[in-house]
Design brief:
globular, six-stranded mixed beta sheet, single chain
Length: 144
């Protein structure tokens, strides 16, 4: 698979799957045995588990929007540096909605195999999100 084809897969993952909420796209762009490695949560195996994760996040943050800042391809890996914005409007893992807006940054690393996204590792500023939505006080006790 060419670097450009790999970039297209990641673009579809960001735009169609996450930004547009088209979960049916997962079967087109993710391997059946897709593995998701999120920070602070157990590893997820399979498209259905990943779809459930997306549903949970999109329910908590229905206006969730990712912007791809950089995409770098090296062999079978694609690195995407992204920014996301969202308003906490639904329950998130037991946290009631706060109505507060947040902006965060993150990096995803994808492994591509047989023309599909086979694996994803992601790191994002979850502490910053929790502070911005008011669940955890900011350091130093001050506000934004």
């Amino acid at each position: 698979m060419s670097a450009e084809e790999s970039k297209v897969l990641v673009h579809r993952h960001t735009e169609e799957f996450w930004n547009q909420g088209k979960l049916d796209v997962a079967a087109e762009i993710h391997a059946v045995d897709f593995i998701f490695h999120p920070p602070s949560l157990p590893e997820m195996h399979g498209i259905e588990a990943y779809n459930q994760f997306a549903i949970m996040y999109r329910t908590a943050f229905p206006d969730l929007r990712f912007t791809s800042e950089d995409v770098i391809v090296a062999g079978d890996k694609v690195v995407e540096r992204w920014t996301s914005t969202a308003t906490h409007q639904g329950e998130l893992m037991g946290i009631p909605p706060t109505g507060k807006w947040s902006k965060t940054t993150g990096i995803s690393i994808f492994r591509v195999a047989d023309g599909k996204l086979a694996e994803q590792w992601v790191n994002w500023d979850m502490l910053g999100v929790l502070q911005k939505i008011g669940v955890i006080p900011p350091f130093g006790g001050g506000g934004e």
